[in-house]
Amino acid sequence: MQTSFTPEQLEDPHVAESEKILRRCVHCGFCTATCPTYVTLGNELDSPRGRIYLIKDMLENGRDADEEVVTHIDRCLSCLSCVSTCPSGVDYMHLVDHARVHIENTYRRPLIDRLIRSLLAAVLPYPSRFRTALTLARFGRPFAPLLKQVKALKPLAAMLDLAPQSAPVRQETVMHGAQPIRGIRRGRVAILSGCAQSVLDPGINSATIRLLARFGIEVILPEGEGCCGALVHHMGREEEALDFARRNVDVWTREIDNKGLDAIIITASGCGTTIKDYGHMLRLDPAYAEKAARVSALASDITEYLSTLDLPRQEQRRLNVTYHSACSMQHGQKITMAPKLLLKNAGFTVRDPAEGHLCCGSAGTYNILQPDISAELKARKVRNIEATKPDVIATGNIGCMTQIGSGTAIPIVHTVELLDWAYGGEKPGKLSALKEKATV
Ligand code: SF4
Ligand code: SF4
């Protein structure tokens, strides 16, 4: 694609990067077929190619974001399906990141939209605030149908609908510091406690720690780490995102320089994609660029790391597991086979749903901010998963677990919970009602 930025515009490193990305696009449109919003809405401006044109036009003309641009960029899930499809290697992720920051800096959203976004940014990344909000949501749930009647208030209704029916229990098993291991120590890793997942389902990290300990991996939960920054990053609140990133880089750098780390383990693939991008996000910060790149290089999804441990093959179970690959797993981190191979090796029968490349509509805060499109994508995803007749659904991202779990009665667990069970752990609580068929 030809561009016509001026030399002065290109002095801005963000514009210079976007210009390079734009020039790679050859308008072929292959990406449209795999874009969930184009597939759902059928509008070229809701396809990657359409959004690329809108961003180019806005940046090249040095214009503030307008309502049209905001509408179509807001509808983008940042699922990165287009990146997997594009034959020209267009780095849409960093282009849309730049566009979101430009929108945040130049566009004044309607009051309610601003308030809802500020509320999400002030609550979701902080576990204690989020836990309180979930408790309050139980009292607000009866008002959700009323809120749905007013377009601007639909995000509030979506928030209430997504909140779990009962308040999540605090788990005391996950504490700061080093966790005990069994046998000879084979490695030392830090695990991200993060934010929303630690409140919604602390059992995921507990299962991870137990499983790793059984294979001799010492797990550290360093004091001071927190949200990876993805939630605010995808809302274009760049300074807040960079502050979260710097805080985590400081914490993990201390551990790396102290006793060393073999990996930084992440059990939510949405966070993994962002932490693997810290090196890029902080590349212009001389105090952090190098440290952030080191952290990104050590970041590893739990299934990536487990694949290096050569886990023993387990006896076959008669349990059908449909594996839902989160977009941040398959498109963001290009991890496609490892989770399924681990599950198969652990004795589960693994099935793939049709249209596995399409997003479930979760996408960070998307299911709150774009509830209608999100609901359509959820229904489509649930239909495809249920068609495979699974006993259980497995995935590697808490956002997908919440989204898909709110649309089906089939139990949904994190991949690592099944692996922990297969390698000597307790049956996941969510599967307590599930009768396993006789082993073959
Ligand atoms: S990130 Fe996903 S929703 Fe956004 S343009 Fe690409 S494929 Fe479409
Ligand atoms: S597939 Fe790639 S090159 Fe083709 S239109 Fe989409 S982004 Fe551009």
Structural key phrases:
alpha/beta; five-stranded mixed sheet; 50% helix
User: What coarse outline follows from CA principal-axis ratios?
Assistant: globular
Q: Helix fraction? A: 40-55%
Sheet-strand content, in percent, reads: 5-15%
How many DSSP-defined strands? Answer: 9
Specify the biggest β-sheet: 5 strands, mixed
Q: What is the terminal separation in angstroms?
A: 57 Å
- Total DSSP helices: 25
Structural class: alpha/beta
Radius of gyration: 22 Å
Low-confidence stretches: none
Strand order of the largest sheet: 1-3-2-4-5
Which ligands are bound? iron/sulfur cluster
Mean pLDDT: 94
What order do the helices and strands come in, and which of them pair?
Layout: H1 7-10, H2 13-24, H3 36-41, H4 48-60, H5 67-74, H6 81-85, H7 92-106, H8 111-123, H9 127-140, H10 144-147, H11 154-162, E1 177-178, E2 187-191, H12 196-200, H13 203-214, E3 217-221, H14 230-233, H15 238-258, E4 263-266, H16 269-275, H17 278-281, H18 289-298, E5 299-301, H19 302-306, E6 320-324, H20 327-332, H21 338-345, E7 349-351, H22 366-369, H23 371-386, E8 392-395, H24 398-405, E9 412-414, H25 415-422
Helix pairs in contact: 2-7, 4-7, 5-7, 13-25, 15-18
The structure holds iron/sulfur cluster (SF4) (2 copies).
One iron/sulfur cluster binds at residues 25-31, 48-49, 52, 82, 85-86, 88, 90.
